[in-house]
Amino acid sequence: xxxxxxxxxxxxxxxxxxxxxxxxxxxxxxxxxxxxxxxxxxxxxxxxxxxxxxxxxxxxxxxxxxxxxxxxxxxxxxxxxxxxxxxxxxxxxxxxxxxxxxxxxxxxxxxxxxxxxxxxxxxxxxxxxxxxxxxxxxxxxxxxxxxxxxxxxxxxxxxxxxxxxxxxxxxxxxxxxxxxxxxxxxxxxxxxxxxxxxxxxxxxxxxxxxxxxxxxxxxxxxxxxxxxxxxxxxxxxxxxxxxxxxxxxxxxxxxxxxxxxxxxxxxxxxxxxxxxxxxxxxxxxxxxxxxxxxxxxxxxxxxxxxxxxxxxxxxxxxxxxxxxxxxxxxxxxxxxxxxxxxxxxxxxxxxxxxxxxxxxxxxxxxxxxxxxxxxxxxxxxxxxxxxxxxxxxxxxxxxxxxxxxxxxxxxxxxxxxxxxxxxxxxxx
Length: 428
Description:
Radius of gyration: 28 Å
Number of helices: 8
Oligomer: single chain
Shape: elongated
Helix content: 25-40%
Number of strands: 23
Largest sheet: 7 strands, mixed
Structural class: alpha+beta
Strand content: 25-35%
């Protein structure tokens, strides 16, 4: 005869009662060890409660919005085997190898190495963390088995995952000859004496290059990038641009394609406000900005910098061209101030003057998207009856997939392409 046993809420590291927000199983379901039964919600995260044994559910003992705590019964389960729950949980405590983990959130203490013995929530259960932390770790390619949580009962937090990634990046950038207690799951950076193979020369990185390297490494590792590629027909736009420059040769600065791209991008950001936002992961909120400051990547002898043009929506193309020229000069001579590179909502990275078909620009955190522009070329385009030769501009939109989905990204590039194809749409 099957034994009827109760699945209960284990010690969840919180003394207060938590509301039940989702029931993941039903009467008659056969549940496996570690299968999620219910989801509880605290003020900071959700917590999926797993089964500690296998069997078939005969009765659910909870309802949505119930308040549960450690020991609260969840369901009656018919168990076929004779292994007791106590037997399953009676494994010896696990001694965790010393690792560096993040301090408890809001603690003023810096991360420090820790070595302690913790009792797993349930022996044999996957690492103790909320579903949100599991999802965050999957996005970064982190195996939670390598981490020890800094919260109560060894619970892994988002800060633990972020600290782990930072240490992994540092391990790659600053290889150590001796093996340390930290094991990021990555192969060590190869150490070679290149002079064995031929003549070499060492060149120190500039301060700008060092800062860029650190920022790009962080942004690429922590933001799940996806890139949407598209093309815009700029045949008429280019004709207009050339005509404006011929009509105003003494305007002070030539109107470049970048000026039109700034103006069109501002309109697209107004139409798609999630692209003009920043993600606050800790609060679980999206910060939507009511201003339109757009940066553009500028190549300098010291490295890449991103000056920011403010209030793009309130300036005409001629004003934007003058401001781009002024900021570009300051970038080249190294006189840009910090305020002239802060506060951007969106970034343009143009390689059109160099060449190329497409690329994947890295998002400039804390922004959620960046537009890459490659070289325009004349191409045959079918108009429904014949092929026309049109000047087509490749666009590469990288976006943060936590905030923006693929359909929204495609609609954004289509909308932007239509604006560039007929600049009169900016007047609508």
